[in-house]
């Protein structure tokens, strides 16, 4: 087991692109080797050793055995865990956009808030956000026709608009409330919103959305299909979006 | 005074009839010369393949529709990323790359010249602004006239002098190289949500037919003595059964005598216009019929418009076809209305090898090239980025050179495709000389660029030279296609105007290329009649003033102006 502890040296003001921070990149490397990996602050290449105090304990042959702990708030560090296939990342604080983007495996735990596009286009693995998540949880980036394709994202706080936009697979659970248009243009996967939301499932062709709280405005593009019971609770089942010939399922109380 | 000597080259230069000869090439001040002194910089080609720099006669590299493609496809710019270096700017994109990547990628493949195939006059400034930002390669563009009110008015009144005068004005206003006609008449009809279906369908409100538009512009083209012939995108593109319209369109220019040593008609991306059948169920390749026509007639040339599987961004002045594509495939769609001149549409598509009619289209492009006996008559293009991006030319080259490569490709395509086309039955394999014609010499001849020193390595020609890391004597292109493809992807050297711009596939210098355009003098009453009419149209119909219209010289920083004069035949 290799544990890599990263302690940010300052509160960064300019956003940093740190897609190098993954168990795959760190596996089996010493602290000086990890310190030599390059992130970008604005357009300036910055070795990780300039950004973090780095401590490595133990060793690992593969990403599976790597645990990265980021001790502190990193609200201006983007793309942490991008494309990771295994291992763990634990962030004790907030994180910037696109954390866990294109992730294929492993677990990311964020104890603070996540910015937009957490789990963007991820295809496997698990992301847990203890705080709130901003826009586009598990969505596709601009223009992509498939957002999240697999894996699981759990947000224990609230999420903002466009949860799971263009989702093609996987699962998103929002324990709090979600903003407008969750599951817009979905083609698969499952979204569970335990709190309230607004206008779910527009242009959805496939997939499932379950809203346990209130739906402020249900789009008039869904056909009612009767009552169904999920985990002992009764929901009204709707199918749509009929405008796009969709067969998506929307469960609302 | 820069001097360069390329020693021990295996040269293919079809315009000068050189077929794999071992020779040296001397370069002085950007031109090919007979010989130079001993102090010149020397490249030892060690028997490797040497071609003139590649020329692309039909590609979409600049202008508002390309930019619309970029805007509507942010996801495209996430591919093909290469960071900046000391001499290159960042590359991004695949089907609609950024302007820099356009120039760099052409140069990396040994191409040194590319012509934008559609400039609406109204959007010409934008086109030239982008052309000016594309590094290394020489450029030019063809101006759209096929659905233009001024053109159709002159044709209805049978006033060829006025028509030629307007074309001359349009080429000047857009700094264009030749006449492009897209779905003649259809663009105007599309303004009313309609299209023209055949060559004799009158255009609404103008009462002229596509046949008249093609014929009159072809005649005006010869009277103006333009370097290039008319450049036609036929009616009915992409519709089952359209090959009859295509053959009919070929026939229109059969008896037109070209003033220069070139064809009277160039028909572009004919793959999209070679469909038989009545619907998408029984659609089939008619490439054999098209090729038969080409084999028995000498007045025209075509380009393939080869389709490449994967992502493509279709962009064309054929507005109605783009609307149909977007509706059929639930794809994104942008539509452009260019006031009195033309229309356009942009739609991203994905060509899947599991869809049989895409498989058929893949077959047709190659059938056209292989069934037509004379290699000069069919140019290699993908109609970038309509059939696929130009970076796939090496793939197309290897498909044409190797039956084995085609068999390998066919095995990955849905078998039903081959009930609709005949590519799997064709044995022909092209050689190095044929490929030199199809990728450079033929393009230069079709565009009328030989006099400009393009497409060949004769004394006095531009020193645009590509050296590929492959030895034709030791390489069997029919079996070693992976090596051939790798060599064409990354030239060992690209030399542009005597300067080494690519070495071992990497950009080493980024000089700015030139922009070619034609200035025609029309000294007769036609010009005055035309100007009167044009001023009226600007007053009454255009949203911009005539004074704001012309592409000024500041927009074309490296011009090469070819002057011609109008003369009655």
Jot down its keywords.
heterodimer; A: 253 residues; mainly beta; 13-stranded mixed sheet; four-stranded mixed sheet; 3 helices; 17 strands; 5% helix; 36% strand; elongated; B: 569 residues; alpha/beta; ten-stranded parallel sheet; nine-stranded mixed sheet; 31% helix; globular
3D architecture notes:
- The complex is a heterodimer of chains A (253) and B (569).
- Chain A has one domain (2-252).
- Helix content of chain A is 5%, strand content 36%.
- Chain A has helices spanning 23-26, 31-35, 48-51, and strands at 2-8, 16-17, 38-41, 44-47, 52-57, 66-71, 77-78, 88-92, 107-110, 126-129, 152-155, 168-174, 187-193, 206-211, 222-230, 233-240, 248-252.
- A 13-stranded mixed beta sheet of chain A has the order 5-1-6-8-9-10-11-12-13-14-17-16-15. In chain A, strands 4-3-2-7 form a four-stranded mixed beta sheet.
- In chain A, a hairpin with a 7-residue loop joins strand 16 and strand 17.
- The mean pLDDT of chain A is 95.
- Chain B is α/β, with parallel strands linked by helices and 569 residues long.
- Chain B has helices at residues 64-72, 99-108, 124-131, 149-156, 160-174, 186-190, 210-223, 243-252, 287-296, 319-329, 356-371, 393-401, 403-410, 432-447, 481-489, 525-540; strands at 3-13, 18-28, 31-33, 41-44, 49-52, 54-59, 111-119, 138-144, 178-182, 230-233, 265-267, 275-276, 284-285, 300-303, 310-316, 334-338, 342-351, 378-379, 465-468, 493-496, 499-503, 506-507, 515-521, 559-565.
- In chain B, strands 6, 7, 8, 9, 10, 11, 14, 18, 23 and 24 form a ten-stranded parallel beta sheet that branches.
- Chain B is globular.
- The chains are: A mainly beta (253), B alpha/beta (569).
- The interface between A and B is small, with 6 and 6 residues.
